[in-house]
Design brief:
It is built from 5 helices and 3 strands; from the N terminus they run αββααβαα. The protein is an alpha+beta fold. The chain folds into 2 domains: 91 residues, K homology (KH) domain (GMP Synthetase, Chain A, domain 3), CATH 3.30.300.20; 31 residues, no CATH class. The mean pLDDT is 84.
Amino acid sequence: MKHRLLRVNEIVKRELSVIITRDMKFEDVLVTVNTVDITPDLRKAHVFVSVLGKGSHKGVIAKLDEQRVVLQAELMKKIVLKYTPHLAFHLDESIERGARVFKILQEIDPKVEEADADENEDEK
């Protein structure tokens, strides 16, 4: 059962990404669907999105919530499931958090940046 749920998560993520990219316009930001976590009963889907750019992150989540019913309807045209999952959008800050941690590591030990540069040159 767990493998099926993982496959459903990936399919919903892929299709929802296409729908959002195709049908929704956001000013000054790039919205990416990072993860979808569907409950085992397929009734609710937690959608984690990252927002890159200078626009309002909360505004993006509000716009996605506002279009939730339309997004669910489009999703169900593409995917046949027993239930149409209720989409709940969440801001995924893991990329920003990772960048912040990397920046702190560079400030602590500037050699980290030099080691990265050396590794990239070795690969070439």
